[in-house]
Amino acid sequence: MPLIRHLDELAGLLPKFGSLLALDISKRRIGFAGTDVTRLLASPVEVWWRRKLADDVRRIAEHMRKREAVALVIGFPLEADGRFGPRAHAVEDTAKAIDAALGGVPIWLQDERWSSVEAADRGGDDAMAATVVLEDTLAALDDLADASED
User: Fold this and answer.
1) Considering the domain boundaries, does residue 145 fall inside one?
2) Can you give the pTM of this predicted structure?
C-alpha cells in the first residue's frame, strides 16, 4: 500500500478499534509510541538504537504484532517553512522501505516540526517525541470526524 497522503484516506482505512503505532525516526534511534485499541491514549513505548534496516523493520513488525496495530504513524520532519528537506526525504525513503517489508499496513506521515520541542518540554526522549506525533495524529483525526458531523 502506498504511503497515505491525505488524512481522510487514513480515516477511511481505520477500523473502529485497533491501536496505532508511531515512530520518531532519526539517523541513530527510533522512538516508539502506541495507543490503546480505542485510540484514546497515546504513550511512549521504547527507544530503539538503529542497526541495519532489516533489524529495524523486524522490531517495528514485532511491535505492530504485539500491539495489534492497524496502522503506522511516522513523524515527518518537514522544514520550519513546510518544505521537504534532506531529513524529510530520508524519512520518506525509510517509510517506503518499511511499507515494502510490512506490506499492506497503512502508513501516515505526520508533520513533526514541533514535536521534538514539545517532547523536550515534557522531559522526554525519542519515544516521547513519537507520543507527541501520535497525539497530533489523533487530534487531527478527531477534528476530521467533528468536521464531517457538521
Assistant:
1) yes
2) 0.94
SS (H, E, C) 73-106: EEEECCCCCCCCCHHHHHHHHHHHHHHHHHCCCC
Looking at the structure of the chain, the number of domains it has is 1
pLDDT (tens digit, 9 = 90+) per residue, 64-74?
999 999 999 99
Separation between Cα atoms, residue 77 and residue 75, nearest integer Å: 6
Q: Within a domain: residue 90?
A: yes
pLDDT, one tens digit per residue, over 103-134 is: 889 999 999 987 777 877 887 899 999 999 99
Give dist(CA 44, CA 66) in Å, integer. 15
Q: Does residue 30 contact residue 47 with C-beta atoms inside 8 Å?
A: yes
How far apart are alpha carbons 77 and 115 in whole angstroms?
9
The answer to whether position 54 is within a domain reads yes
Segments forming the whole domain that contains residue 41: 7-101+113-149
Are 133 and 73 in contact by the 8 Å Cβ rule? The answer is yes
